[in-house]
């Protein structure tokens, strides 16, 4: 029997495994398998479950108003049938959204600390936003409808993805992987997750791998550092295997019309507040009172600082608590055109005033809550800096037009994602998304986002590490790599720069082992669920809005005992078409070993479409097929003759010529 459903009664209240795992066992259909495979549920999971336990009179307390906390409130209302007025969200800031931010104006300068690339198969994220009313479209349309309207009519791609030599576009037509590099990636895909605890990326790959197009594209797109988790890189490869053939030109991505605060946080908070959900700002929950009886752990109180005053909020055992563990953007230090950001967090300890305090205090109570120090304990390994440029017409905008897919003022795709300078000591990148990036942005203003990965290297032009630079100096370094530094004065006159130095922005990628991250609902917890980027799920990655929503959904369904499952990640990684096209992409766009043999075998069958099209020059060239076989079996080998004879007999039996 499949482990999707527990054995026992066939009643509607039978126990469900909320967090599914497609890798746990072989799935087959039988009388007891009433649910589809864990990763192939689709719209079938749009059902409204009948609650097993009553929700009337129960309260829910959510710590953190980022996308995970907001999603938890949404799922308690939609699927748990809780009343909005019974849900309270706490946040240390004075605005909702957590890391999904976007603020400022044209006069003082806009600021966006970071952004998230997105793709089509964020199944939980789109499940949520197909039920959230649109930001701008009329009543009856959703955020998903709005998103599709933008992206279906304005394809995303980049024509300048990699640059070098002060303004020259570097050839990024292929991933630039040698055969040995390709085998390194294939072996990584085959490795078991359990065998990769605490192994770094640089400990696995050869030194030459880090100079390939693939690594520049990968690290700048996902913000991986060489010293970070090999396990997380592997999980990313599986998660985005279907997108690897569009990674070089960014055609695999979809972007919102505006920044992610206005695109997602604003409509979702509007919906929740209309339902009665309360959001209480300037409130730091730093600890919980936890009653431990045997293996059971029940929250009985929240210890908070509200506007500087210590307060304890009582929690009934039937109430629910959802807490964010850790924070990517906690402790952000800010700077501007003439000011350097000053980091207030320690390199190894964040201090009692940080948003890590709650998780640290939980971890002191029981090992089931993980080891937060593995993630916050090395700021030099997890930090990078971003800069947001507010630009009026200047030589910089003129250069941007040369590198863009469409005119930056057209409202359509501009750079199509980050442009990365491969010879930058900082590994500097910049991007211009669709404009306006803010709904009230003036017509003559562009908002540009800049970031770099290496914080300990001197710039190529400005002989300082990025964190020691003012906004003006970072602008100068950018202009140098664009080949327009001699026009810096004219550019600076029409540009405002705001800086964000984030000590924990890639803390979630730090090397880790089993048990370092707690499960969404840790063992024995009766009314506590953990959310965000520092919790363990079966197969999903982190550092995405999808993973935040997934953790919220798992927590809500588990604690409310809802008979409904959260689908595993999309099964595209197992699709033979995905595997074939990924193999072609990794092989620099050339037919992979054995591909021509497959074409010869399948070319006149119903299944011919599963293979990438051969290059036109090969369509009528039999030598390439022979050379492919020779490469596989060796010239003149007995195996080569046997395979050739077998193939010709096979084709003859089917009546092919």
From TrEMBL:
PANTHER family attached to this UniProt entry: 67 KDA MYOSIN-CROSS-REACTIVE ANTIGEN FAMILY PROTEIN (AFU_ORTHOLOGUE AFUA_5G09970) (PTHR37417), MYOSIN-CROSSREACTIVE PROTEIN (PTHR37417:SF3)
Domain of life where this protein originates: Bacteria
Organism: Novacetimonas pomaceti
Protein name: Oleate hydratase
Gene3D superfamilies reported for this sequence: FAD/NAD(P)-binding domain
Pfam families noted in UniProt: MCRA (PF06100)
Entries under NCBIfam families matching the protein: PRK13977.1 (NF010584)
Residue ranges of the TM segments: none
InterPro entries reported in the protein's UniProt record: FAD/NAD-bd_sf, Oleate_hydratase
């Amino acid at each position: 029997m499949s482990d999707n459903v527990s054995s026992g009664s066939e009643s509607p209240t039978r126990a469900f495994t909320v967090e599914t795992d497609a890798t746990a066992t072989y799935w087959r259909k039988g009388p007891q398998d009433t649910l589809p495979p864990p990763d192939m549920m689709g719209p079938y999971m749009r059902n409204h479950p009948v609650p097993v336990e009553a929700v009337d009179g129960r309260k829910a307390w959510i710590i953190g108003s980022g996308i995970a906390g907001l999603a938890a409130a949404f799922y308690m209302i939609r699927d748990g049938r809780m009343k909005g007025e019974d849900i309270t969200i706490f946040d240390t800031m004075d605005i909702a959204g957590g890391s999904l931010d976007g603020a400022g104006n044209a006069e003082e300068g806009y600021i966006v600390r970071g952004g998230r690339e997105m793709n089509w198969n964020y199944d939980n994220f789109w499940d949520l936003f197909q039920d959230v009313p649109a930001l701008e479209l009329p009543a009856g349309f959703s955020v998903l409808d709005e998103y599709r309207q933008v992206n279906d009519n304005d394809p995303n791609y980049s024509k300048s993805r990699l640059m070098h030599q002060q303004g020259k576009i570097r050839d990024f037509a292929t991933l630039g992987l040698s055969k040995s590099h390709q085998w390194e990636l294939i072996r990584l895909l085959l490795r078991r997750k359990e065998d990769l605890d605490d192994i770094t990326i640089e400990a696995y790959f050869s030194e030459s791998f880090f100079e390939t197009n693939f690594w520049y594209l990968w690290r700048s797109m996902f913000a991986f550092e060489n010293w970070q988790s090999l396990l997380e890189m592997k999980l990313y490869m599986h998660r985005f295997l279907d997108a690897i053939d569009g990674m070089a030109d960014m055609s695999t991505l979809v972007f919102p019309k505006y920044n992610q605060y206005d695109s997602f946080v604003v409509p979702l908070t509007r919906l929740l507040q209309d339902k009665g959900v309360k959001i209480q700002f300037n409130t730091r929950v730093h600890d919980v009172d936890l009653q431990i009886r045997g293996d059971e752990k029940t929250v009985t109180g929240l210890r908070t600082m509200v506007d500087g005053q210590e307060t304890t909020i009582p929690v009934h055992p039937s109430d629910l608590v959802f807490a964010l563990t850790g924070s990517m953007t906690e402790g952000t230090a800010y700077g501007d055109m003439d000011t350097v950001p000053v980091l207030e967090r320690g390199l190894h300890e964040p201090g009692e005033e940080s948003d890590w305090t709650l998780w640290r205090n939980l971890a002191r109570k029981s090992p089931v809550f993980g080891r937060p120090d593995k993630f916050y304990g090395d700021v030099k390994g997890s930090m990078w800096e971003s800069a947001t440029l507010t630009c009026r017409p200047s030589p910089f905008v003129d250069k941007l037009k040369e590198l863009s897919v469409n005119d930056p003022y057209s409202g359509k795709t501009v750079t199509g994602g980050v442009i990365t300078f491969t010879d930058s000591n900082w590994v500097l990148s910049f991007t211009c998304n669709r404009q306006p990036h803010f709904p009230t942005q003036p017509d003559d203003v562009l908002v540009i986002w800049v970031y770099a990965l290496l914080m300990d290297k001197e710039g190529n032009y400005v002989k300082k590490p990025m964190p020691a630079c003012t906004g003006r100096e970072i602008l100068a370094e950018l202009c140098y790599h664009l080949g327009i530094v001699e026009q810096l004065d004219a550019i600076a006159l029409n540009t405002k720069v705001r800086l964000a130095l984030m000590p924990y922005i890639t803390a979630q990628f730090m090397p880790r082992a089993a048990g370092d991250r707690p499960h969404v609902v840790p063992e024995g917890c009766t009314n506590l669920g953990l959310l965000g980027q520092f919790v363990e799920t079966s197969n999903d990655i982190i550092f995405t809005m999808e993973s935040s929503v997934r953790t919220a959904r798992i927590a809500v369904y588990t604690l409310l005992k809802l008979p409904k499952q959260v689908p595993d990640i999309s099964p595209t990684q197992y699709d033979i078409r995905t595997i074939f096209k990924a193999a072609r992409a990794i092989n620099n766009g050339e037919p992979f070993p054995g591909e021509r043999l497959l074409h010869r075998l399948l070319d006149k069958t119903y299944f011919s479409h599963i293979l990438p099209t051969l290059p036109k020059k090969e369509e009528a060239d039999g030598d390439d097929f022979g050379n492919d076989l020779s490469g596989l079996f060796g010239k003149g080998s007995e195996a080569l003759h046997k395979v050739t004879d077998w193939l010709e007999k096979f084709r003859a039996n089917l009546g092919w010529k």
